[in-house]
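Reviewers of the previous submission asked for a worked example of the structure-prediction workflow described in the proposal, so we include one complete record here. The input consisted solely of the amino acid sequence. No template or homolog information was supplied to the procedure at any stage.
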Amino acid sequence: RRRRNAGRDLHETAVNRRLGILISGGGRNLQAIIDAIQDGRLDASIAVVISNRTDAPGLERARDCGLDTRCIDHRDFATRERFDRAVVAELQAHDVGLVCLAGFMRLVGPPMIEAFPNAILNIHPSLLPAFPGVGAQRQALDHGVKISGVTVHLVTPELDAGPIVLQSAVPVRDDDTVDTLSARILVEEHLAYPAAIKSVLDGHWRVEGRRFVVFRPN
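From that input alone, the workflow returned the following structure tokens.
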């Protein structure tokens, strides 16, 4: 359950373990979550997989695993708010407790954040706050950093700026290209996302300002 205390959002016990996965493409992180559930690393179930693209290969991947899928095409809506509300309605119809963005190429607006406060996760291929937005691997190479990596964070209205749940570092090699760096980062993504989901679902954490803080239960 959740309760407010001194302005902090306390998550004292495990939350609803039904996941809603939002995708736009191939669903590789979706597959990592599926694998983690199947091999017992993650105690959760996937209630629904939603894509904003009818041609997203991840939808077929989900169907092949026997998962419930929906396509809500953002082009069918006059405004972003109406699209968001349609997605929220579908998530709520499936009794989703935690929303996971897995290659979902749409900004999440206020309707979804208000419906799922501190219950939307995103994964990003850099060590935020470095290199937010698209092309993070290219940004890392152009900047000449020696370390990049993966960040899983709670979603807030600001792009890639929510409280950080988990980070994993990936060294940048002198001979790296965007493709080689992206491939090594993706390996870490597939480990980090299920681990971060587990941390959120297990409870015993709170948000203090920009910080995701795990605490010991009394």
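The CA atoms of residues 33 and 39 lie 10 Å apart. We consider this example representative of the routine output the project will generate in years two and three.
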